[in-house]
Amino acid sequence: MFRAGLVACLAGLLIFLALPVLAIFVEASPGELLASLKDPAARDALWLSAQVTAVAVAIIVTVGTPAAWLLATRRFRGRSALVTLLELPLVVPPAVAGVGLLAAFGPAGLLGGAGPDLVLETAGVVVALVFVASPFYVRQAQAAFAALDPTWLEASRTSGASEARTFARVAVPVALPGLGTGLALAWGRALGEFGATLMFAGSFRGTTQTAPLAIYERFATDFTSALALSAVLIALSASILVTVKLLPGRPDALL
Amino acid sequence: MLFFDLRARVGRIDLEVAAEVRAGECLALVGPSGAGKTSVLRAIAGLLHPETGRVTCDNTVWLDTGAGVDRPPEGRRVGFVFQDYALFPHLSARDNVAYAGPGADALLERFGLSARASARPRQLSGGERQRVALARALARRPEVLLLDEPLSALDARTRASATRELVGLLHETPVPTLLVTHDFTEAATLADRIAVLHEGRILQVAAASELAAQPASGLVADLTGAVVLEGVARADRDGLTRIALTNGGTITSTDAGEGPVAVTLHPWDIAVEPADSEAAGSARNRLPATVVTVTAIGARVRLGLEAGQPVTAEVTAAAVAALDLRPGTRVDATFKAAATRLVPR
Asked: ipTM, 2 decimals?
């Protein structure tokens, strides 16, 4: 009786979660999906998404890896508070993130006019993606570095390597599976980013309209086209998920 | 020559040690776990920073807290062999050795590892890992060799051959070597001198034979494998010393002593006779005891006895058979007054 209940719950959950995903592929025929991908606006959106997520992830990895190393290898006052602060974007609603970015980098914001124009620009999309996706990478990288056997790092030092060389030649290569997992998670988050981008950078074809924004723009007018873009994003997200599952360092420590 | 004088608080231990190791000499740091042995190695290598201390190697100052000198680990030429070897898991045996310096192929050949050069650490046996770790330490062209329990991660069979190889290596090595081990026999085999470390302090520094023959304290005697009995000594009129043992019994020693002492003697100086048999020679000490364990080691048998205090005796297998010794058998443990050494407690 109890066992039947467990199975029923799992089955219900599975159907509920899988149905919308399946529906996207069932609603329109493959021919229709491919045809609507020929739409230049849809292609622009996908191409822009590929570019901005690649740039955002590159920035996150470049800055986040040394920062995660620092957090994983040093003990200092206020470290826990700092880690919590860095994780805040994980729980902040995307709309709030958008407002925050406007308040900080907008024309009338804290740093208004100080830097390059970000609002309604492609660069603004990258800023929004870095903001929402970086905690996914930094958390994972920090856990990967903390899991390293400290005697490997000490053996590197006594073998004549500086800390910088130890970082580059031992820590990063050994932690690579964990770093790869973090990268995939951050990329997945960046690919799906919607709210913060819309509020901070707007939705202009060719400059700020990423794939999720393009889906939103056309779902009322051209549902088949929205389905086609959605199908592409599902394929990409699924491949990220499979990659993460196949990497040895699993994101078990994640939220 | 390596010189070190270190004071550091490590966990619950106040480390306070100083010693010199000459070129080509091997000094063993021996003591129970938690004595601070590994911390000494780490401080010399620059992995641990003592509150005050001085480490010099030949004429180079590696650490001088008074003068504000504290070279980083990569600035001290040490060959460090870690207890679990700490080989880099993502590099082949050759790349592990090459990481520390040139000449990896020659070193691998010297350690008989040429055929395993491209294997990763997890594909190597325990003995092979240990040799890669030694080769990596030597690739650094060290001015000091630091070995942290280099044999403890090996199984008994591998350990015998690894010990022979290590003895050979230490004979060839022209630099000072500091070896950490908890095993007195291992230290006696590998080192020229042994420093006994207990709770962060060096109790005695001497050659192995001297430590066994003239331990400075009961702790040292205990470590060398001798039997240690505690009691209170007083000089008697016949020139001998009588010791009233803790938990009962009195024994006689030819050594002089007064007040609380540790009586030390070797297990092979203790004989076992049937309980209450009449003394053949009154100069012998006689302690009533019960057999607790009987362990054969080749032709010898090691007897664990309970005589108010634990006593270990080594007798022949023939004696065990003749006396029908088994756990629970009541016997008398006997030993000459001249076989005992007294050390103040």
From this structure: 0.80
